[in-house]
Amino acid sequence: MPNIEKRILQLRKELSEHNYRYYVLDQPSISDLEFDLLLKELEKLEAENPQYFDPNSPTQRVGGTITKNFETKTHIHRMYSLDNSYSEEDLKDWEKRVLKVLGVINVEFYCELKYDGASINLSYQNAELKSAVTRGDGFQGDDVTANIKTIRSIPLKLKNTLPNTFEIRGEVILPLEGFNKMNAEREELGYETYANPRNTASGSLKLQDSAEVAKRPLDCLLYHVVGDLPFETHSESLQAAREAGFKVPIESKVCHNMAEVLDFIHHWDKARHDLGYETDGVVVKVNNLHYQEELGYTAKSPRWAIAYKFKAEQALTELLSIDYQVGRTGAITPVANLKPVQLAGTMVKRASVHNADQIAKYDLRIGDYVKVEKGGEIIPKIVGVDLSKRPANVKPIQYITTCPDCGTELVRREGDAKHYCPNHYACPTQIKGRIEHFISRKAMDIEGLGGETVGLLYDAGLIQNYADLYALKAEQVIPLERMAEKSAENMIAGIEKSKEIPFERLLYALGIRYVGETVAKKLAKHFKNIDALMTATFEELIAVDEIGDKIAKSVLEFSQNLLNIQLVDRLKSYGLAFAISEEQLSGASNKLVGEKFVVSGVFTHFSRNELKASIEKNGGVVSSSISSKTDYLIAGDKMGPAKREKAEKLDIPIISEEDYMKMIE
Ligand code: AMP
Ligand code: ZN
């Protein structure tokens, strides 16, 4: 075999192993940088030697195929629905029917969570992925293979063979962390946010550009191996799938009787909130495959399985009024005031409505009874109206036409879901909002200065913009109401200290529209200092990876405005870090390579994000939920008991932030 071919095959093998360690086991053994270098090498070799093309090479994960119309494919084995149950009685009735058909007095069950996403059928042949088809109507679905290949946790080549030909079914999901991040980015860009992870996951599978799909943090959890199987039980088949490289959640269990099934259900009804992805119930399956065959199917669903649905966390309450909040960019966000109602353990008084279209969509009226739901987001949202409860005297909502703060007429730009107050440089809420953004945790993180004090300083005429902060003197601040000498001095010291904040965070702090944390990092890395950025042309801006027209225009709007030029000049004169530092260019270490951390609670030396950044900078990996793969749980103050319990159960060391600091010393 020629050397080049050997090297290509070796790289493919290594990369898929690293891919597996990272996305399936959550236990990487090399750094992202090392991975990228290997991938680049393979890309180069493949480009130079097209005769070795392989559609299942790790390089194919980035996508790039455009599908105009997805081909319809008939399922070899029909994809059934599941019968639902909502109570213990339902489950016990189902058990009785099962025992009667089988003529036995007891069977083993297998309990799994019901993953909430889009179902997919994967076909493998000779240990390679051949095709991926959506459920469709159960008989036939869409061939979305190109999109599925971009999901890193789905193996393109298997580590062990199951039968030579088989199908495996699973759920494509969007974990909450990724979902919230996608939404935060959309919010930042002024786009409408996605309603829920499930719809976003299934929508993603139907995108025409697979490169777009590759950018979404999708995952795939497997739950059913189909085919002529050499196994006795469902649990064995899943274990074999796990060993072949599939992501089969460990949150599942063999139960020896219905009492154990109910324990499983009760446990996950509570524990599901810590999972990191959405689940709406538990699926109980008869574990023995021969029994499954004997039980067979109804017209719609298997007789050997049943779904138990958790109670939806929804509440019905009265819509009292709508408030309109003005953001620092002038974006108007309507917020609903509700008659307080208990929902998933907390009292809910407000819910987000997002924008005018949402109000129109539900035809919301003041006095209506609205359904509120808690999704993965922090603020609950309105998901519907109970029209049968609509009182006679409801009032239509008159969406505001002028800014609630400065009275300027609102505008709505083409393609934006939100209304804006265009009085950018004189609208008090926007000015204060920009200063608040500047000092916020992820930006300059100024100790001793909070949103309330900003309001105080602004109202007293002491600051008009964020540069004014650096000219403040303790003597000016002390006379203000509620300002003690000590706190004034702390604040001034905090402001002074913020001059050391690295360039990328300062850039984010400037509050340029559409320049969120991620974009700020990209710009800082590319331009390296503020002068290069402030003089960049449109062409130079859009040449940066992932910077589009919209962001480029916004940066230009900022950099060409005289007021901003003066602001930046003043900040420079105060000595803020307007360039990437030497340390930042190096500074990283490999001390934590291969270690996986979960971070929980509040810390004294770091903000939570700083701690995460520190772990990554030293080569470690941060994940959001504890699993058997976690190496350390760093526990801060106010850590939830569930996390501690889980770590103890799995024997994972729980360390303090001081312990952590010793690790990277
Ligand atoms: P339904 O759509 O309510 O009829 O429920 C059936 C769907 O549940 C299946 O098509 C699967 O996509 C999904 N599902 C999620 N988790 C599981 C699981 N652990 N076992 C079987 N089906 C599951
Ligand atoms: Zn205004």
Can you give a write-up of this model?
The protein is an alpha+beta fold. It has six domains: 3-62, Orthogonal Bundle (Helix Hairpins), CATH 1.10.287; 84-309, DNA ligase/mRNA capping enzyme (D-amino Acid Aminotransferase, Chain A, domain 1, 2-Layer Sandwich), CATH 3.30.470; 314-389, OB fold (Dihydrolipoamide Acetyltransferase, E2P); 428-500, DNA polymerase, domain 1 (Orthogonal Bundle); 503-584, Orthogonal Bundle (DNA polymerase, domain 1); 596-663, BRCT domain (Rossmann fold, 3-Layer(aba) Sandwich), CATH 3.40.50. The chain contains 25 helices and 22 strands. The radius of gyration is 28 Å and the shape is globular. The two termini are 48 Å apart. Adenosine monophosphate (AMP) is lined by residues 81-82, 112, 114-115, 119, 135, 171, 223-224, 283, 307. Residues 326, 403, 405-406, 408, 421, 423, 427 line the site of zinc ion.
Summarize the structure.
With 665 residues, the protein is α+β, with helices and mostly antiparallel strands.
